[in-house]
Amino acid sequence: MIIEKPNLFAITGGPGAGKTTLLRALQALGEACVEESARTVIRAGMRRDGRRPDPRAFCDGMLALDVAAFHAAGPERRFLDRSLVDAWGTARAMGVAPWPEGDEAVRTLRLNRRAFIAPPWKAIYANDAERIQTWSQAIEAYESCGAAYGAAGYELIELPRVDVERRVAFVLEVAI
After folding, report:
1. pLDDT confidence band for 50 (50 / 70 / 90)
2. Which residues contact 120 (CB under 8 A, 6 or more apart)?
3. Nearest CA among 32, 25, 100 for reference residue 72
4. What is residue 78's predicted lDDT score, i.e. its pLDDT?
5. Mean pLDDT of 151-169
6. How far apart are the first and last CA of the chain?
7. Quick one: average pLDDT of 27-32?
8. What Rg value do the Cα atoms of the chain yield, rounded?
9. Which helix (H) or strand (E) holds 157?
10. Whole-number Å distance between alpha carbons of 132 and 138
11. Residue 146: which residues within 8 A CB-CB, separation 6 or more?
């Protein structure tokens, strides 16, 4: 059975493109927002040697959190810092296959048909303890996100490279 929640808006893109900053600003205005599942999984599953969890466990963890967030969402407009489509795209990029759980979730749990994508933005890109990708890997991740959302049947709306206040205004104008 397909469940549609057009009130859920995904914000995707590569690392360091301003997604989380945008979500925090939206939240400060009273908008309902969901934290990125990948960071939660990384925090919970980092090994002592600093390596990430194995790809299957990583993707399964993201999907579980994203599916739970989907089902927990009420009727109000809600912005997602990535979504189950990102978990699915990450699994595809990492070679996690077959992955029937991810395929089924992307097919049956449908967000708003329009998703926002944050383009790579070198001026704001920075690494941290959880964001270990290089700039070129960030660009590859952006392209992978775009491909995943396209393959899943979503229309992507590119966020402008402007200050957070103007990004917020853009998102609120489009997310109706």
Report:
1. low
2. 13, 14, 16, 17, 135, 138, 139, 142
3. 32
4. 98
5. 97
6. 25
7. 98
8. 15
9. strand 155-158
10. 10
11. 12, 117, 156
- Give Dmax over CA atoms of the chain in angstroms: 45
Angstrom distances, CA of residue 27 to CA of 32, 34, 151, 164: 6, 9, 29, 12
Picking from 90, 98, 103, the residue whose alpha carbon sits closest to that of residue 59 is 90
- How much is the pTM? 0.91
Pick the CATH number of 3-174 from 1.20.210.10, 3.40.50.300, 3.40.140.10, 2.60.120.10: 3.40.50.300
Residue 26 burial (10 A CB sphere; 0-12, 13-18, 19+): buried
Task: Identify residue 71 by its one-letter amino acid code.
Answer: H
Beta pairing partners, 69: none
